[in-house]
Design goal:
mainly beta; single chain; three-stranded antiparallel β-sheet; 73 residues; 6 strands
Length: 73
């Protein structure tokens, strides 16, 4: 998953195999990547509202390829 903050502050906590947490604090225009299968959680510990976007994938997904080339007009 990838997380990008639009505004506000977002904490992205990820956990290693031993359960030890690492926290990344993101603010506007910051981006964090959490590899597929890594346990994680999100938190807003600030008084302001946070707005962010997320893109999720799967560790088991088959890579997609273009079916046809794009043409330039």
């Amino acid at each position: 998953e990838a997380f990008m903050v639009i505004d506000g502050v977002l904490d992205v906590e990820s956990y290693d195999a031993r359960g030890v947490a690492v926290t990344q604090r993101l603010s506007a225009r910051d981006l964090a990547f959490v590899p597929a299968g890594v346990k994680h959680r999100l938190a807003n510990r600030d008084v302001a509202t946070v707005r962010f976007g997320a893109i999720a994938g799967s560790k088991d997904a088959v890579p997609a390829g273009w079916q046809s080339a794009l043409s330039v007009r």
